[in-house]
Amino acid sequence: MLSSSTIEGKYRNKYHEATKHSAISVQLDPNYVDATTQPVAFKKYPKFFRRFPLELDNPFHQFLSLTSAITFQKQYRDGTHSLRVQPSAGALYPTEIYVQLRGISGMLDGIYHLEQDSSTLTLIYELIDDGLEGYFSDDRPIKGCIFLVSCVYFRSSWKYKNRSLRYCFLDSGHHLGAIEASAIVSNYSYQLLFDLDRAALNDDLGFENKEFVAAVAIAGEPKDKKAVRRLRSPLPFVSATDYFEPNLFIEEGYKQTFVENCEKQPIKQPKFPFESSQILQAIQRRRSARRFNPSPIELNDFLTVCTALQQPIPSENAAAFEIYAVVQRVTGMQSGLYKIGDSNYCLKLGDFHDRTGYLCINQAIARDSAAVFFIVSDCGNYQLALQQAGFVGQRIYLAAENLKFGCSGIGAFFDDETQAFLETDLNVLYAIAIGNLCDRDRIK
Prior knowledge:
single chain, alpha+beta, 2 domains, 7-stranded antiparallel sheet
């Protein structure tokens, strides 16, 4: 067992340390909010911007739509909530999607905002010899699509305060995972890009301090010609919320975790154990489970999820992370704590479902699950690590949906106690539970 001094001393990130939960901190700040004060969840540009409806019988339009589509409308006492292809902490959806199109038949070369609630592309900037490529280390023009994921942090900090720094990064990773899934279904090659000049791009997109660039996904190929210059003029500011309350901790944390000059690695493409038609169905049906039936899942299904989550992330920039699993109800597998890898090494045997439920802030969904995955990292770059943790989390969601059981991402846990239970000196970034759904929670 690692000592507390070892856990605290080796990998310390001040933003991670400052946003930790403990049994005492949760009691002192139960985090109640007035639902009527929630900021709006969709960004809209003024009516005079040109708009292009996405027609879902057009394969390219479907590809764009599936990156961000609304898949279900759910009624609550405080109103209607639009559930989407990607999960979000508290269903607050702080992410927005912009897409640059270049060389696409029937479309103007330009930067568009994807309006999710109307399934519409809004042209916000027309290209000449400039573009988003000018902010990348490889500034050759991309023929195809450049997706830019941004975060409107107040949508999350409204409820979760400083800890929403984590959730914004995790949510942007999930949105990148939704782009990956859409690309696979549509048979587009793709890669993720984290190394870009965020500061300059934030300024030129007119985000001020109210929205920030998170990461980029590219579905296209570079053309061998002269470099693309940066945007020839900044865009006018358009607010993504109806009101705004600044959080200087989040703004500083974002700027201090810019992903620049990352160590490069060869890009490797993932190979998933599902057909594209299965992934399409999973995208359309994905939900976050709210409760599990405490019954076992099959060993082969658990191993299939492990195969999916271990696939390489197609990016030159990678964070070092490890994945643990608390196996609680898997047929043919002893209950215990495992380190996920080629052999899924067992670290300790035991029935830990009550302990796991407690560590996840006494949530029954963790206690009743078949297994809970924990993603940990040394946080060499905090933003990159959390974004890639969210990206892996999206893969777990889609794998679970393909296998007809449920999934729920868990961003709230007792940090130090979970770290001690896992017997690791790495920081715990994310928990994802999988298990059998109760009959009344199954999607019809």
